[in-house]
Amino acid sequence: MSERDEDRAAAEFVARHFPETTRFLADDRRGELPVFGPFEVQGGVDEPEPPVAVVQVAFALTRTQLLTVLAMSFAGLGDRTPESLTDDEVRREVEGQLAAEAIIEIDHLMEANEQAVFPPEQQRAMDLLGAAVDRAFRGASR
Known about the structure:
By secondary structure, this protein is an all-alpha fold.
């Protein structure tokens, strides 16, 4: 197991067995980090069904992760140069790329789920999860 995998396994163990400590550490860490965004609502605009909720997610990212996400986004910026990007543009590009990657992955999973024939027990679980979404995001429609 790599060091990164060991670190992730340890973090998951602590989160599972010591949730209060995990929340405390996360809250403490967030207080030390600068927070940027959200700049705009991402995704959901070209879906066959209308969006029913805006969910905000906060990512704590390393410099390497930020650089990777910005590089992914920058590849699609055409004739721009890195030095021409303002700080706000960099932040918007990172936020937008993170959102785009999440939406792409969700779309792939949605397509797979729509084509799947679930066994009755799993279908019941999916129906219950749908009810949980409707309850948690009041006014959500299927």
